[in-house]
Amino acid sequence: MDKFLYVAMTGAKQGMNALAVRANNLANANTDGFKSDMTQARAMQAFGEGMPTRVFSMVESPGTDFSSGPLKTTGRDLDIAIKGDGWIAVQAPDGSEAYTRAGHLKFDETGLLVNARNTPIMGAAGPIVLPLPIDKVQISPDGIISVRPQGATAEVIEEVARIKLVNPGNDQMMRGEDGLFRLMSGLPAPNDPTVQVESGAIEGSNVNPVHEMVAMIDIQRQYEMQVKMMKNAEEIDRASSSLLRIG
């Protein structure tokens, strides 16, 4: 009886874990550059007295779906999207170097170049700071940032920095608790001059809302089935106790 209840309880618990992953994906369906997490379930043997004939499910996130999201044209000079594989280097809140595909950039009152989450964009020597005041900013396909100083003529364009673009391989990347990606080794990735960006566009989330909703409905049905099994275990236990009292 204990095994019966344990199997049902663990199944319900793992269903809740899977639901949390799917809900997080759905919540980020409109987050630029977001990569959805995958889930999978596998059977695990329940060991104890006797033969391990019962199994319970274990839900885990084996990795991230690194497929590209849809490209959205904005026409904005500071919006960039990675072409193909690659990442934009940023400075994480803890000061470490991290990576993202979110390319909606802006600069603050000090000239610090940041993304929509106010995370500093990295160059070769650290976070990029633009020389203010400026009239125009443009970013070339190789990540070079050029500016026109305020009051200068249209033909005056000065190169001021280059965005650090990397491509260490998606199999080397893992998502941190802050939502940013890092190398599994913990070391910073080297600059890759072959990574190209498209200016005036951003990459959307690769989450498929319909797929996530269907998956959440399926998980909820499985959860309800596990709860019914727990109630059945309780009824069987109550009936067994009644028989013992009669005896």
Automatic annotation (TrEMBL):
SUPFAM superfamilies: Flagellar hook protein flgE. Residues 199-243 form the Flagellar basal-body/hook protein C-terminal domain. The keyword Acetylation does not apply. Pfam families: Flg_bb_rod, Flg_bbr_C, LlgE_F_G_D1. It is found in: Bacterial flagellum basal body. The basal body constitutes a major portion of the flagellar organelle and consists of five rings (E,L,P,S, and M) mounted on a central rod. The rod consists of about 26 subunits of FlgG in the distal portion, and FlgB, FlgC and FlgF are thought to build up the proximal portion of the rod with about 6 subunits each. This is Flagellar basal-body rod protein FlgF. It comes from Shewanella gaetbuli.
